[in-house]
Amino acid sequence: MSRQQSIRERLQAALTLEHLEIINESHMHSGPPNRETHFKVVLVSPEFTGKRAVQRHQAVYAVLGEELKTGLHALALHTYTPAEWQETGAAPASPACQHQREV
Fold first, then answer.
1. Domains along the chain?
2. Is 20 helix (H, G, I), strand (E, B) or coil?
3. Which residues contact 84 (CB under 8 A, 6 or more apart)?
4. Positive or negative torsion for Cα 22, 26, 28, 34
5. How does pLDDT run across 72-103, given as a tens digit for each residue?
6. What is the DSSP letter of 96?
7. How many other CB atoms are found less than 10 A from the CB of residue 23?
């Protein structure tokens, strides 16, 4: 199973999600091709209501702890309540990496 699929399954099993996007951004960073080390994750959950951003991120890190121990290098988290997502509708674009691989 790919790391991206593993992340998806872990998050879906642990959290009530109304929206989930998992984007492999590894190609935007230096390193060998076809790796799964850098991801952007957009989550919308009613469980985030009343929680600060750090608490939301801690909840996701708790679910993905094993992934972080086994090669997941970077995780850009964008966490929203359903009301925030309805207002925003999209996560911000990821910035270019300073060590972006030449293509």
1. 3-28+35-86 (3.30.300.90)
2. strand
3. 44
4. negative
5. 878 999 999 999 999 988 888 877 765 544 44
6. P
7. 14
Write the DSSP assignment of 33-90 as a string of letters.
TT---EEEEEEE-GGGTT--HHHHHHHHHHHTHHHHHTT--EEEEEEE-HHHHHHH-S
Q: Which amino acid is at 99?
A: H
pLDDT tens for 6-46 read 999 999 999 999 999 999 887 665 665 666 778 899 999 99
The answer to whether the beta carbons of residues 4 and 39 sit under 8 Å apart is yes
Decide if 22 contacts 7 (C-beta within 8 A).
Answer: yes
